[in-house]
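User: I'm putting together a teaching handout on how multi-component assemblies are represented. Below are the sequence lines for each component of a complex, exactly as they appear in our records. Could you produce the 3D structure of the whole assembly as C-alpha cells, so the students can see both representations side by side? Please keep the chain order the same as the input.
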Amino acid sequence: MSYDTLRLSHEDGIDILTLYRPGALNAFNATMSAEIEDYFRRVNDRDEVRAVVVTGDGRAFCAGVDLSSGLGKFADPARAATTLAELDAHFDDESMRGVRDIGGRSTLAIYDCIKPVIAAINGPCVGIGATLTLPMDVRFASEDARIGFVFGRVGIVLEACSSWFLPRIVGMSRALEWCYRARVMSAQEALDGGLLRELVPGDRLLAHAVAFARSLIEVSSPVSIAMTRQLLLRNSAAAHPAEAHKAESLTLLHALTHDATEGVRAFHEKRAPRFTSSPSRDLPPFFADWVAGRRGPADAN
Amino acid sequence: MSYDTLRLSHEDGIDILTLYRPGALNAFNATMSAEIEDYFRRVNDRDEVRAVVVTGDGRAFCAGVDLSSGLGKFADPARAATTLAELDAHFDDESMRGVRDIGGRSTLAIYDCIKPVIAAINGPCVGIGATLTLPMDVRFASEDARIGFVFGRVGIVLEACSSWFLPRIVGMSRALEWCYRARVMSAQEALDGGLLRELVPGDRLLAHAVAFARSLIEVSSPVSIAMTRQLLLRNSAAAHPAEAHKAESLTLLHALTHDATEGVRAFHEKRAPRFTSSPSRDLPPFFADWVAGRRGPADAN
Amino acid sequence: MSYDTLRLSHEDGIDILTLYRPGALNAFNATMSAEIEDYFRRVNDRDEVRAVVVTGDGRAFCAGVDLSSGLGKFADPARAATTLAELDAHFDDESMRGVRDIGGRSTLAIYDCIKPVIAAINGPCVGIGATLTLPMDVRFASEDARIGFVFGRVGIVLEACSSWFLPRIVGMSRALEWCYRARVMSAQEALDGGLLRELVPGDRLLAHAVAFARSLIEVSSPVSIAMTRQLLLRNSAAAHPAEAHKAESLTLLHALTHDATEGVRAFHEKRAPRFTSSPSRDLPPFFADWVAGRRGPADAN
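Assistant: Of course. Below is the structure of the complete assembly, with chains in the same order as your input.
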C-alpha cells in the first residue's frame, strides 16, 4: 500500500497512519478521502495490525478540506436535485460519486473497522479534520491543538456523519453550540466538553497514544476486540436491546468453537491465553449479513 | 401574530417569547399549546428571526398544566381505547384532538424549528413547564428557579415527548429517579444533573440568554444554522451513521450552489462572509421528504 | 416462588433479591438465568412489590458465569451456523434454547420490569455479574467492590444486551476501553466512569439501597411509575420524538380515567394522594401491543 496523502508505519502490532500533505497542513481532499477509505477497508484483512493510531504530519493534524480550488471538485452541483430515494437506491453505485460527501466515505470506513482506532491530534484540527476523529474510539490531543467545527462559517454544514457521532460524544446542547458558533476552540475547551480523553504535551503525544493503543489489546482475543467494537458501535443505536441480544448470542455461539476454548482453559490454568483465531478469517458467520442489513436503503427512512 | 397566552418582542434578530398568563404563574393550557405550536411553525418563515429565547412573565416560568378545572379538558376520556395503530394512521387528523397530548404538540413544533431556541427559566418550572424546555437547545435558569418532573404525583406520566428528550440530556438513571420521585428540585440540583448550562442571577437572566443566543448566530450562514439544528436532532437518533451521511451529502450539495460560494470566497479574501440564502426559501430540496419520512406512521412500530 | 440460586425477602413494599450460590461467589449459570427471568416476569403481577433491590450473598455480588464445567452447557456449538433471520423468526421458540445468550434472557426480563430496580453491588461483580446490573435503574456499590467487563480475556464478548446498555450509561469511548482491556477495576474507577451512582461502606450498602428505593416510590402512583419506566427505557431509543408522543398520549388518556382523578383532587385539597390503580391490572390498553411491536423480528434489521 502506497499512498500520496498518507504515511504508514508499524510498531509491533500498532499501525501509525499519518495524514501527510506537507505545506498544506494536511488538508483533506478527494485523494485523501479515497486513501483513508482504502486503508481502513484493507486493514481489516491485516491480522498483524492490532490497533491504529491516526495523527498528522508536521505541526497540523488536518486543517480541514482543501479550499485552494473551491469546493466544486468535491461534489457536483449539477446533482443538487438528487432525492433521498435516489441516493438510497444507488448508495454504493459509481453514479453517486459527486453526490456523496467524501468525508462520510472516510468515516463510514472507520466505523466499519474491526480494530481500535485512536486519534493523536497534534495541532490544528478543523472542519473535516475534526469530524474525521469522531468515529475513532478515543481522542488525545496536544496541549496546543485547536479544534473547530467551522462549517457554518463557510456556508456549509457538519459532515462526515458527524451529525450522528458528535451528539453521542458531547451531548446535544454542546454539539449544537459548537456547530452554530463555528469557532476554533482550544484543546482545553474540547477536553472540558468531553470530546477528548486527555491532553498531552506535544512531544509525548504520539508515544502516549501508541502506548494507550497497546494497553487496549494486551489481553483480549483479537476476534473479541473486533466483535466488541462492532457490537458496541452498532447496538448503541439499535431501537431495542433485543437487537443486541441477537447479535451477541450469535457471536458467543461462534466463540465457543473458537477462542473461548483456549480462554477458559487458560483461566483454569491461571495463565495468559494464547488466542489463535484470526479477525480476517474467523468473524462469526452472521457478521456479513448483520453489517449489510443495518445499512440497507430500506432502513434509511 | 397576536396571542392570548404569549407575549412576543424582538431585539435585533432575537425573538423573545414570553409565556404569559398573569395571576396563573403562566400555567399551560390548550390555548397556550396551540399558540406555542403556531408560533414555532410560523417562525421558520420569518427570516428576520435568527434565534428565539423563551421565558416566563413575572416571577414564574410555567407552573405546569392548569389544573384549575381538572385535566378533562385536555384529553377526552371517551377516547381511552384508541389503539397505537389508529393513532399512527390518523396522526395529523383533527379526529386525534382529544387523543394527542397537548404538550407534545408544542414540543414537536419546537423540535421542527430551524432556529436556535434558548430557555431562560426565571422561576418555578414544573410539569409541562419543565418538559417544554427539553427540545430547546440550551437551558439557563435563575438561581432561585425550581424545576420538577412531578407527573407521578398527580397520577399521570412524563409527557411532551420528554421520554424521548430527557434521558438524552441527563442520562437514564437520573431521568428515572427524577420522574419516580416527582419532586420539585432546586436549580442547583438541575444544574448538577446536566439539565441546565448555567445559573444566572434573576435580574440578569434574560439579558444573559439573549446575549448567548446572539453569540450563536454571529458567524454561520442562517441556512447552515437551520440545517445544523435539524441534522443534529434527527441524526442523533438514527440507527446507522449512513443515514446521517445521506442527509449531510444532499445538504452539502445544495450548499455548493448557495452559501458555500460566498463562504469560500470570504475565507480566501480573509473577510467576514455576507450570506444571502434564506432559511424560509432555500432549504435543500430533499428536506421536506426527509422530515416527513422520519415521522411516518409506518415507522412508529 | 422458591428458587435454587436466589433468595428473596420483602420489607414493606421492597423486594430484596439476593443472588445465592454459596461457595461459588454466586456465579451465574443456566438455573440462575431462568430463575432471574422467572422472578422479573412474575414481579410485574405482584402489586405489593413497589421496587426491587438486587444484591449478592456473602462477600460477592456475582463472580461471572460459572466456568467450572466450561461454557459448553450455556450454548450449543452445533448451532453456530444459525442465521440472524432464523433467530428473528424463532426468537421466542424453544428451538432457540442453546442459541440465545442466557445472560440476555435475564436482562431482557429486567428491561421489561415495571418497578424500579436498584443494584447493591456488595463485592466482586464480573462478566455477567457486571452486565446484569446494566438494565437496572441505579447502581450502588460498596467501596471495596470490584467490577470487570472481562469477556475478551476468555475469548468471548460482552453479552446480556450490554452492547445496547453500556454505551448509553458510560459513553462509547469508555465502553470500548473497558471491554477491550477486560480488566477488573476498582469501584472508584467505575464511579468516576459514570457506571455507579455512589459508593457506600459495605456494612451500610444494602440498607442504603433499600432506603433509596423507598424514596423513589413515596409519592408517585404505582401505575405512573410502571409507565414512566417503560416510556423512558423504550422511547430513549426511538428514532423520532413522535414515537414518544404517541405512547405518552395514550398513557395520559388512560390515566384520566384512573389515577389522575385522585391525583388532581389531592392536589387541590393539598393532601397526599391515595392512588388505587393497580400495575398488574390497570396498564393502558395499548401497552401490550406497544411492547410487542417494538421487539418484533421484522424490526431487528
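A couple of points students might notice: The two ends of chain C are 37 Å apart (CA to CA). Chain C touches chain A through 63 residues (CB under 8 Å).
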